[in-house]
Recover the amino acids of this structure.
């Protein structure tokens, strides 16, 4: 049913329809409305037999999910930022054990300095933990991806992270067609575990594996993600058939067919990018955009096919690999190996800094004239950075960077737009 | 030493004493079936079966075997175990072998209580509360790194029996100090170097059984491998209840303590008799039963056979440190009333039953 | 679900823009975020696409808060904060000279300020030269809220006032959204405050035209 509601609420309702049996909740901005919503639904009896466990940390949240999933229960939790880091050990454990847990990550920056606003540092920091990573462009897709995620996870026996931009999507009201229970039940069968703790048929899960077998076990994790490269589009296609709208998949091109310049990005920023692409197209600029929806497994072939004919590629990303530069762009570069084109990385939107059409337009205009650096920082205040570097170079007790820059900026809280 | 049935009349009418009846012997097949320990039964589960790689004399292997078999019996064989990283996990599952004969999961070092909570939640969601859950780990995984998860499990009231096998250090990684390492003990990072460092520091450490009691959970008990009847009985008592339950088992580690592998049970007995390790039961936040010391020993008798305390018996001996340890033992005896009357309140002949006539000796 | 036919529904705005953009300023605890959400629901009830989102920090009561709402007949893709609003609603007049509230307001934009004093008394007379004076208005929304709700929560009232001032949304849509969100007694009282403010603004506008 088509409704106007908050992204978090849409996700909570959709997750509830997936009939999780164990939901773990530890609060962290900006995921709180999701777990609150699920709590209400559980208490109202809308989830049938579901245990809602309030845990004492994110590490515990995922650990409880691990125990539950190993016992054959469909398990779910949600987190962001610091919470994702706090469960880092358990992330690897869950994927290593092949447990099909689904988790929402409400993408948020990682401190220090502490920052509660949106960027992709959290999920990117865990890109190699073995979880499948899917990125939603809007709240409709955020809701839909959870339904697909459970099916995908249980099919390939790997946990899945559904990433949605914190605040930008979680706290945005927009129209979402929330599926019905019948629709979801028809699409998502009950969980049939590949391994389960069952007194009637005891197994040992989580034994130590030495040099003689570890490589094979790890390779299997990779092989399963390779299988997911097929499973993801299949499930997306079946979803479109069953629910009547496209969502998910590996990549999605926007006006890329004859584009000479293609902008690559993940998540909600694509909406603003597409509006800007349309503006430039109206002026005859051959520009398009590519949304990467599955970041892990990374769809090398699909990205290569979409970008290979362009003259230049601009990868716009909301995370920074300190010491080298872009993360998504490095992965994109791998897909383009052997193909000669101009590649630019743009780091944008860190810590929730808005990505505006105005800035994007100026950026794209420079891009099409190849007037960009290999590594660019959108809307970075170079003056402030330079003065802080000078302060440091002067030696002595130059003070903490964050406080110095805030003082220089004379930041007033309401001047946030 | 005669019990109620103390034997048949011999040829000249002399009574033959059956010394095993009413004793601390573990097997005790001469008892009535209901009074036998789980280990004495032919149908015991052997949950932790032979072939594991524990050291000779490993207290933890002994304790785990007894605890799990008792829990399996109490649950009718419907039990799932979540194990922390540590010696028990490592020696019981050397890939590709496993000595566990029940569904068993090892996740991480610090999350065994949370994983156990997750198993319990799943069973509840599926309406399978006939299947019971045990979480287990060593002192490192329970008192230190798993502490947050343990407290959360207690606080939520999750239906898990958690058993901590306390050998007083991080043994599997090479004997490093944990929050359960007693004062003056030598470990790899609390060596007695210089006079001001007589081993592990005084004034540190966590008393996890008391912390568990403070959570007000249905059942908390301490036990040792010197009295295996008692350990079984406590596991069975715990399994009669629902909600979070905690048993803290003292398990000597010959390798880590520098003790003779034949001394494991003796050391466990001595730590109780010295007063350094009080044995008790608590329910719903209140102490309900205490094991009295039968034959008190000075702490020295307990410390001497362990090379981790050898630095206290050098030339000259560190009598100052030994006196401080004795003071700790004295304080325990006073706090728990370990010496009043001199007769144990615990009936070792009746598993799960409390005799009103007192134990037969 | 109503789907209006024809072109853009905002003929009052120059250039028949596809979306109408509202920016709401206030302080934490005044329901600024809720106001934007309600606008989006009202627009949805009229069969439009709508997007509402907040811009806030982790402080709770009293800190300046901004929320945004876009609505129109075509799907909304952009996510940037509203830099050039078609309408500004100011829930807390103490922000007026502290923060640059008017940044980006379109020349033909609407301004609704929650205050019993008029623009001149608020020291904003010069705005009449930058913008279209008949589109700038202050209303005593807090007083109306006190009257109808018994509490000084002006957000619902201001939405009614906005509907009257801009004509971008119908009052009945706003009221339906309010009732759906609050329910019961609270819903009725907020709806009443909203209607009262709507009529207050209508009256003001009629008086201004007639004068």
């Amino acid at each position: 049913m088509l409704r106007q509601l908050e992204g978090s609420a849409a996700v909570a309702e959709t997750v509830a329809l997936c009939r999780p049996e164990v939901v773990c909740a530890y609060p962290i901005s900006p995921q709180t409305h999701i777990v609150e919503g699920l709590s209400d639904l559980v208490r109202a009896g809308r989830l049938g037999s579901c245990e809602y466990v309030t845990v004492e940390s994110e590490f515990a949240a995922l650990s409880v999910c691990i125990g539950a999933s190993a016992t054959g229960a469909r398990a779910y939790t949600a987190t962001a930022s610091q919470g994702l880091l706090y469960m880092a050990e358990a992330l690897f454990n869950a994927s290593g054990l092949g447990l099909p847990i689904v988790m929402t990550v409400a993408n948020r920056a990682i401190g220090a300095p502490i920052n509660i606003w949106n960027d992709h540092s959290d999920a990117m920091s865990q890109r190699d933990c073995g979880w499948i990573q899917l990125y939603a462009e809007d709240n409709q897709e955020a809701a839909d991806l959870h339904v697909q995620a459970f099916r995908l996870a249980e099919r390939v026996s790997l946990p899945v992270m559904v990433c949605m931009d914190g605040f930008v999507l979680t706290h945005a009201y927009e129209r979402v067609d929330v599926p019905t229970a019948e629709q979801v039940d028809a699409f998502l069968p009950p969980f049939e575990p590949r391994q389960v703790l069952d007194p009637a048929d005891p197994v040992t899960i989580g034994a130590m594996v030495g040099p003689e077998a570890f490589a094979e076990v790890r390779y299997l994790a990779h092989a399963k993600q390779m299988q997911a490269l097929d499973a993801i589009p299949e499930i997306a296609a079946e979803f479109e058939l069953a629910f009547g709208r496209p969502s998910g998949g590996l990549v999605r091109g926007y006006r890329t067919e004859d584009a000479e310049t293609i902008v690559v990005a993940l998540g909600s920023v694509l909406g603003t990018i597409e509006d800007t692409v349309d503006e430039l197209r109206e002026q005859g600029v051959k520009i398009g955009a590519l949304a990467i929806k599955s970041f892990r497994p990374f769809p090398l072939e699909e990205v290569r096919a979409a970008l290979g004919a362009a003259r230049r590629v601009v990868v716009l990303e909301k995370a920074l690999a300190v010491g080298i530069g872009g993360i998504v762009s490095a992965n994109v570069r791998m897909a383009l190996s052997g193909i000669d084109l101009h590649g630019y990385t743009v780091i944008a939107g860190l810590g929730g800094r808005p990505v505006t059409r105005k800035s994007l337009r100026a950026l794209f205009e420079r891009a099409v004239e190849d007037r960009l650096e290999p590594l660019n920082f959108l809307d970075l205040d170079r003056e402030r950075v330079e003065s802080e570097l000078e302060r440091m170079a002067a030696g002595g007790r130059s003070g903490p960077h964050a406080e110095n820059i805030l003082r220089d900026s004379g930041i007033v809280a309401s001047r946030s737009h | 030493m005669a019990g109620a049935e103390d034997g048949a009349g011999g040829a000249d009418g002399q009574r033959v004493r059956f010394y095993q009846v009413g004793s601390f012997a573990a097997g005790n097949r001469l008892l009535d079936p209901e009074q036998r320990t789980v280990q004495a039964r032919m149908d015991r589960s052997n949950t932790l079966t032979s072939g594991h790689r524990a050291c000779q004399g490993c207290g933890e292997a002994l304790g785990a075997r007894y605890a799990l078999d008792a829990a399996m019996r109490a649950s009718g064989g419907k039990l799932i175990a979540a194990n922390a990283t540590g010696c028990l996990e490592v020696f019981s599952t050397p890939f590709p072998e496993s000595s566990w004969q029940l569904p068993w999961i090892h996740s991480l070092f610090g999350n065994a209580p949370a994983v156990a909570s997750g198993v319990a939640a799943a069973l509840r969601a599926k309406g399978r509360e006939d299947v019971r859950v045990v979480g287990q780990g060593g002192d490192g995984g329970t008192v230190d790194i798993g502490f947050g998860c343990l407290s959360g499990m207690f606080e939520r009231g999750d239906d898990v029996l958690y058993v901590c096998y306390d050998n007083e250090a991080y043994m599997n990684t090479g004997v490093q100090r944990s929050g359960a390492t007693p004062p003056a003990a030598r470990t790899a990072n609390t060596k007695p170097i210089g006079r001001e460092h007589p081993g592990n520091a005084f004034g540190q450490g966590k008393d996890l059984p008391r912390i568990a009691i403070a959570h007000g959970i249905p059942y908390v008990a301490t036990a040792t491998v010197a009295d295996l009847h008692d350990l079984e009985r406590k596991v069975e008592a715990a399994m009669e209840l629902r909600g979070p339950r905690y048993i803290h088992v003292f398990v000597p580690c010959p390798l880590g303590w520098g003790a003779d592998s034949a001394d494991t049970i003796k050391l466990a007995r001595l730590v109780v008799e010295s007063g350094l390790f009080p044995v008790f039961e608590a329910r719903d936040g209140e102490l309900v039963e205490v094991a009295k010391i039968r034959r008190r020993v000075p702490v020295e008798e307990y410390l001497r056979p362990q090379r981790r305390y050898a630095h206290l018996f050098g030339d000259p001996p560190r009598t100052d440190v030994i006196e401080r340890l004795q003071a700790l033992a004295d304080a325990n005896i006073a706090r728990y009333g370990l010496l009043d009357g001199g007769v144990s309140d615990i009936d070792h002949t009746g598993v799960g039953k409390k005799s009103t006539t007192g134990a037969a000796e | 679900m109503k789907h209006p036919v024809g072109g853009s529904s905002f003929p009052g705005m120059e250039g028949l823009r596809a979306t109408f953009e509202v920016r709401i300023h206030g302080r934490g605890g005044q329901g600024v975020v809720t106001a934007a959400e309600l606008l989006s629901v009202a627009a949805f009830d009229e069969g439009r696409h709508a997007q509402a989102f907040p811009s806030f920090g982790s402080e709770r009561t009293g800190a300046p808060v901004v929320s945004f709402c876009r609505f129109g007949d075509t799907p909304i893709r952009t996510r940037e904060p509203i830099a050039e609003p078609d309408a500004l609603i100011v829930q807390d007049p103490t922000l007026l000279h502290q923060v640059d509230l008017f940044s980006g307001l379109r020349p033909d934009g609407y301004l609704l300020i929650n205050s019993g004093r008029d623009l001149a008394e608020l020291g904003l007379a010069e705005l009449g030269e930058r913008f279209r004076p008949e589109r700038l208005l202050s209303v005593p929304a807090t007083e109306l809220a006190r009257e109808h709700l018994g509490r000084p929560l002006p957000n619902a009232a201001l939405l009614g006032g906005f509907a009257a001032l801009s004509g971008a949304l119908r009052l009945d849509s706003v009221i339906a959204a309010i009732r759906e969100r609050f329910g019961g007694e609270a819903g009725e009282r907020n709806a009443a405050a909203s209607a009262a403010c709507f009529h207050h603004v209508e009256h003001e506008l009629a008086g201004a035209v007639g004068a």
Q: What stands out?
A: Confidence is low (pLDDT under 50) at residues 412-417 of chain A. The first helix of chain A runs from residue 7 to 17. Chain A touches chain B at residues 21-22, 24, 49-51, 53-57, 59-60, 63-73, 75, 89-90, 93, 97, 196-199, 201-210, 213 (CB under 8 Å).
